[in-house]
Amino acid sequence: MGRYRNCRKIEIDIVEVLEVNWGTFIAEFIQNPLGTGSLVPSSSYLARVMVQQAGLAHADAVLEYGPGTGVFTAHILRELRPQSKFAAIEINPRLAAIFRTAHPGIPLFEDSVENVCAICESMQIASVDCVISGLPWAFFPKSKQVKFLEQMMRVLKPGGRFVTFGYLQSRAMPMGRHIATLLPTYFTTVYKSPIVWLNIPPAFVYCCRR
User: Fold this and answer.
1) What is the pTM of this model?
2) Domain 46-209 maps to which CATH number in 1.10.1740.110, 3.40.50.150, 1.20.1250.20, 3.40.30.10?
3) I need a surface site. Which of 1, 46, 49, 189 has the fewest CB within 10 A?
4) For residue range 48-60, what is the model confidence (pLDDT) as tens digits?
5) CA proximity to 160, closest of 48, 54, 47
């Protein structure tokens, strides 16, 4: 019976991934595949692995890059202390609108993450403990990867964490390989998780410590 319940839960979670915002993600992917990165939102399984690696229990300030519709956000908010500061940065206006409906009252900046310093200043955040990213790094050119990381390092505390993910197929993509070699030049430790198969497409998580 226990095995049946676990299988049933997996089945329900997969159906939710396929149904929630499917139309929105297809439309956005068709219009801007490099900026969206996927046809469907990330699964709760991937979200849990991301948050487990983030070490949020004692974080004072956390940023989320590219939250999309807010799948990771719900898991992040459950882990944060009431006094912790949190903000999300989403450049896509349609996804930002869905995020605001799903998470009313949560600070969301409809902007590029390259402006993270100004965003932190506007929130009176001197530095952040963790950046959790849903950005499609494997689709960004080298110059954009470097620019985003350089700006992030200006606000990330010493010892702070950067958690992001890549799709299984990104390991064969030139820019996917580039970000993999780039991360160790910015961080003292870079950990790559096992494959999260219960995601569409399957994915893995990078956890980086400054």
Assistant:
1) 0.83
2) 3.40.50.150
3) 1
4) 999 999 999 999 9
5) 54
